[in-house]
Amino acid sequence: MVYVEAQNLPSHIGIIMDGNGRWAQLRGRERVEGHREGSKAVRRIVRAARRLGIRALTLYAFSEQNWARPDLEVDALMQLLREFLLSERDDILDNGIRLNAIGNLGRLPAVVRTVLDPLRSDSAGQEAMTLTLALSYGGREEIANAARELAREVAAGTRSADDVTEEALHARMPSLSVGDPDLVIRTGGERRISNFLLYGLAYAELHFSDALWPDFAEADLYEAIASFQGRERRFGLVGKAAVPVLGEGEGAATSERAPRSEESATVLRLVG
Ligand code: FPP
Fold first, then answer.
1. Which of 57, 111, 197, 223 has its CA 20 to 30 A from that of 160?
2. Is 261 a domain residue?
3. Residue 55: inside a domain
């Protein structure tokens, strides 16, 4: 049983969906079959997040670097994306989900664009949850694009160099239009970020799951959220229960707060 607090849900969750290839290889099957099974996990987790009331879910579906994979695999992934967008269209529209996409979308083939673009515009007014697919996406590329935009403004004389601020950069990151990610989950046992949401990750909580993405179940999502809820986010400040260490004078060191106990949680919801 996993308990998730109804309050204190992460508003924006990002997921690095890793392990499709290994899932297939472990079964003596083609990598593409792992991706197909991974699509089913996408459906499962989108529905679970929507039911929980998560406001924004960003899925790393295809990185800018993934174009270098064998053509057969890239084509299969594009086909799966198309199938996903077609099969989920009604569900997305009926459940108040806004379908968003970030990344170098101009590189996507027509088979994807012809279903992606209409769903983006048809769901644009929906507000319950924003589902963002990171497609042909790279965090460094996103930062470089934002920097380039600001550089153009400086060159055109509409912005001074001193106005190239953290806020100005942030405002030009499409991945952060739904707010910074609060929780980033990576499946598949690796513990790295692989160029995902780099700028927004500054204060995100990270959760690494050993489950291969096709095996990632609702219960694994709840476990990640419960783990998030058990942490104290300090954003560079001292903990809420930090107390000055006596005898150290001004600017005394502080002791860190102990992890929050189960008892202090106000509303608990049994979810799985
Ligand atoms: C990483 O696994 C996964 C990807 C590169 C693609 C993710 C794609 C899907 C989950 C399916 C299609 C997406 C949608 C939104 C319907 P990997 O192949 O690198 O796994 P490995 O590390 O085991 O080789």
1. 197
2. no
3. yes
